[in-house]
Write a structure and sequence with these properties.
The chain has 197 residues and is α/β, with parallel strands linked by helices. The chain contains six helices and seven strands. It is 35% helix and 21% strand. Strands 2-3-4-1-5-7-6 form a seven-stranded mixed sheet. The relative contact order is 0.20. Its main location: cytoplasm.
């Protein structure tokens, strides 16, 4: 699949992954929600419950029509709400961009790609199953590996450390910039800008 710019049509769905509710809000696993909150603030929009099973904000980002979607399901059931939002807005998988945490990247580093495996990420596994394809865009926010012998499943459900939190707002901001670059200029340009740092 050679496509570089998300979405053949005008509309794009930007989905951020996380778990709903205040108990999980500061978790590493919820960084996708944090990035979408930043994008919603840039668009001047507020999330509202949507029949797709996600909280949705509609508006424009980088000159394109976008729907921001935060699934109201738990992480491992993200696929239904993401696919439901895409169906509602008549967006194919090539117009879906998923923002998620990534254990295999150092904290704060960013990687953008189209397609690929789920790398043990239950949210991605659910989305791939619901969309029926791996060919959707991903913006991966590095959270690093757990220390010592900590179970990755426990690690992702812990809040960012005090040291990490000092850089968190900056890193979330940079990730939002990367999403905007992807939407405006395509995958290659966004990779060139954000993979080096």
């Amino acid at each position: 699949m050679e496509q570089d710019l998300p979405g053949a049509g005008e509309q794009i769905v930007l989905a951020g992954l996380g778990n709903p509710g205040p108990r999980y809000a500061g978790n590493r696993h919820n960084v996708g929600f944090m990035v979408l909150d930043e994008l919603a603030a840039r668009m001047g929009g507020k999330f509202k419950a949507h029949k797709s099973g996600a909280e949705v904000v509609e508006g424009r980002l980088a000159g394109r029509k976008v729907a921001l979607a935060k699934p109201r399901s738990f992480m491992n059931l993200s696929g239904g709400p993401v696919a439901g939002t895409a169906r509602f807005f008549k967006v194919g998988p090539d117009g879906v961009v998923v923002v998620h945490d990534e254990l295999d990247l150092p904290y704060g580093s960013l990687r953008l790609k189209l397609g690929g495996g789920d790398n043990g990420h239950n949210g991605l596994r659910s989305i791939t199953k619901s969309l029926g394809t791996k060919d959707y865009f991903r913006v991966r926010f590095g959270i690093g590996r757990p220390p010592g012998r900590m179970d990755p499943a426990d690690y992702v459900l812990k809040d960012f450390s005090t040291v990490e939190r000092k850089e968190l707002a900056l890193n979330v901001d940079r990730c939002a910039d990367a999403v905007e670059a992807l939407v405006a200029h395509g995958l290659l340009a966004a990779q060139n800008s954000f993979h080096a740092s």
